[in-house]
Amino acid sequence: xxxxxxxxxxxxxxxxxxxxxxxxxxxxxxxxxxxxxxxxxxxxxxxxxxxxxxxxxxxxxxxxxxxxxxxxxxxxxxxxxxxxxxxxxxxxxxxxxxxxxx
Length: 102
Known about the structure:
The protein is mostly helical. It has one domain. The protein is 69% helix and 0% strand. It has 5 helices and no strands. It is elongated.
């Protein structure tokens, strides 16, 4: 091994944006719903192995997390709708034409 070689932790190599060719897309609402249905089914499978109190807490927690996730999606969707109204301002050609032509 040469002295100028630097070893990087595996996590940084795998998840660093500069090393990934295709960026992971954000999950869709449908994917999130499927994920939470799977979590609910997994909890249902464990129902006989855990106490009733723990089961109820986990059901409540899963519902709360699902609601928070969907609220984030609604916020992102609303933000995107608002930005669509002003997309011409973000266009570099518009900016150059409007402000740099004077």
